[in-house]
């Protein structure tokens, strides 16, 4: 049997990290099994579904590298893979279920029921075509004429979940549920089940929040004469405080992480370790290693904590692992954005001198822009906090004076020569290294957070460095 799995996002919001992780696990499973990964759009909620959300979701999938074999945009043997295009199909299935006695039109009053039944008989319809709704759902809002599935009340619904093991639902917890509303629109249960049957889905891996829907889908599938897929309910994501992941915990849309400068490889890796690891402990691995080792059965039953700090750490690991050229290419747009203009080829040479040092200090790509901006833009304003902390201390004027004197007579302008003369200052003034180098750093880069000082001065060049030291000295008064 060829594995066929699907991801079925509803385009009613941006792609949530939890949904992205469910998509990732489906994708990994399909790739591991040499199966087919399908993306369909669950847009039966016409009021809340938008094209913008759909585009955002699909572009986030692509950014993560979760390519699909069948589905929206790429096509396949099952039409458009969009639920709003299949409303006739769902209506037809609902009527077919009524005709076979598995479902019925919901009627509330006994009187009306009798007249409807008489009519049904005349029309040669199934005697169970109209049924009074059972007491268990008597209090649900009336939707006269909606079609409900007739749920057998004599046995539980039992299935083997790949992650949770045996799961059993009592029939009274399922109730005769609506599959088609009286206005002819399908419920999620009907549309999702019909799609899973029509598209020959073999495994459904989805969030645990949908577990209560699963007995309904199983009963519907069986009523259609089909065999239900294998289910795997993924534990939900929690914040580091143990509460359900929400906006309070920070960004929850995948596209937010993309905008912050995260690498797709790092996000892919991080989502994969939310409840899984190739060997139970390794945290950093490649896409190919994940495909090799992945199995739905090995996903942990325990809720996983989504920790943005750990994701940031992991992103830093991926940045450090890049080769230099790749790093430079990746940060170019962020450097240009920080500088506010595009840079010439010879200006990039200065960046490349510092690239290794910047790379070591970068966890998010835009940070590289902030570290490099001093190379290209004059300091409009010193970083306020840095100035207050460093430049208002006593003795700063002496340090700057001495730095200016020593550097102006330096024959060769490179990091080693700069270092050797500047290191004489703390000795001669009998002060600490920090008290010496921090003021020089703020003077030259505008901030107390920058790449290492000597290399920064070397990359900036002699004249701009001297000019900035002198200007800071003047600012001190
Ligand atoms: N459209 C549903 C959702 O986004 C899909 C659920 C499912 O995978 O069956 O929650």
Explain what this protein looks like in three dimensions.
Helices cover 47% and strands 10% of the residues. α2 links the parallel β2 and β3. The chain has a 4-stranded mixed β-sheet. The protein has a 3-stranded parallel β-sheet with strand order 1-2-3. A two-stranded antiparallel ribbon has the order 7-8. By secondary structure, the protein is of the alpha/beta class. α8 packs across α10, α11 crosses α13 and α15 packs antiparallel against α20. The protein is built from 20 helices and 13 strands. Among the domains are: 148 residues, 3-Layer(aba) Sandwich (Rossmann fold), CATH 3.40.50.620; 56 residues; 93 residues, Orthogonal Bundle (Arc Repressor Mutant, subunit A). It binds glutamic acid.
Short description:
The chain is of the alpha/beta class and 477 residues long. The protein is built from 20 helices and 13 strands. Among the domains are: 148 residues, 3-Layer(aba) Sandwich (Rossmann fold); 56 residues; 93 residues, Arc Repressor Mutant, subunit A (Orthogonal Bundle), CATH 1.10.10.
| Strand percentage | 5-15%
Oligomer: single chain
**Helix amount, in percent?**
40-55%
Q: Could you name the ranges where pLDDT drops below 50 across 5 or more consecutive residues?
A: none
- Cα separation of the termini: 81 Å
Q: What would you call the structural class?
A: alpha/beta
């Amino acid at each position: 049997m060829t594995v066929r799995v699907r991801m079925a996002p509803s385009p009613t919001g941006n792609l949530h990290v939890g949904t992205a992780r469910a998509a990732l696990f489906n994708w990994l499973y399909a790739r591991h099994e040499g199966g087919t990964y399908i993306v369909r759009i669950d847009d039966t909620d016409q009021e809340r579904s938008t094209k913008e959300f759909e585009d955002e979701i699909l572009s986030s999938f692509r950014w993560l590298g979760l390519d699909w074999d069948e589905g929206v945009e790429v096509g396949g043997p099952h039409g458009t893979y969009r639920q709003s295009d299949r409303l006739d199909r769902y209506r037809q299935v609902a009527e077919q279920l009524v005709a076979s006695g598995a479902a019925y039109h919901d009627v509330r009053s006994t009187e009306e029921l009798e007249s409807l039944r008489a009519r049904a008989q005349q029309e040669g319809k199934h005697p169970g075509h109209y049924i009074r709704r059972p007491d268990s759902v008597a209090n649900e809002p009336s939707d006269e004429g909606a079609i409900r599935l007739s749920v057998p009340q004599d046995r539980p619904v039992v299935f083997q979940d790949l992650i949770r093991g045996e799961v059993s639902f009592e029939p009274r917890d399922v109730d005769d549920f609506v599959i088609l509303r009286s206005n002819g629109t399908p419920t999620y249960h009907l549309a999702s089940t019909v799609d899973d049957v029509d598209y020959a889905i073999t495994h459904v891996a989805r969030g645990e929040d949908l577990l209560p829907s699963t007995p309904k889908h199983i009963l519907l599938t069986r009523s259609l004469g089909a065999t239900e897929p294998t289910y795997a309910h993924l534990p939900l994501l929690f914040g580091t405080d143990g509460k359900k992941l929400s906006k309070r915990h920070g960004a929850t849309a995948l596209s937010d992480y993309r905008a912050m400068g995260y690498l797709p490889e790092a996000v892919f890796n991080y989502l994969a370790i939310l409840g899984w690891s190739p060997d139970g402990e390794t945290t950093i691995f490649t896409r190919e290693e994940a495909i090799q080792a992945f199995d739905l059965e090995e996903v942990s039953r325990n809720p996983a904590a989504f920790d943005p700090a750990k994701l940031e750490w992991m992103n830093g690991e991926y940045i450090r692992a890049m080769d230099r050229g790749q790093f430079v290419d990746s940060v170019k747009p962020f450097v240009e954005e920080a500088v506010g203009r595009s840079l010439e080829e010879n200006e990039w040479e200065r960046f490349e001198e510092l690239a290794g040092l910047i790379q070591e200090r970068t966890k998010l790509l835009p940070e590289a822009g902030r570290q490099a901006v001093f190379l290209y833009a004059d300091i409009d304003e010193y970083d306020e906090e840095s100035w207050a902390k460093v430049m208002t201390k006593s003795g700063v004027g002496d340090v700057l004076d001495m730095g200016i004197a020593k550097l102006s007579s330096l024959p060769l302008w490179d990091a080693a020569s700069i270092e050797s003369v500047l290191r004489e200052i703390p000795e001669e003034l009998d002060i600490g290294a920090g008290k010496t180098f921090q003021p020089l750093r703020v003077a030259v880069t505008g901030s107390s957070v920058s790449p290492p000082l000597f290399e920064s001065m070397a990359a900036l060049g002699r004249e701009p460095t001297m000019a900035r030291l002198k200007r800071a000295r003047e600012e001190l008064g």
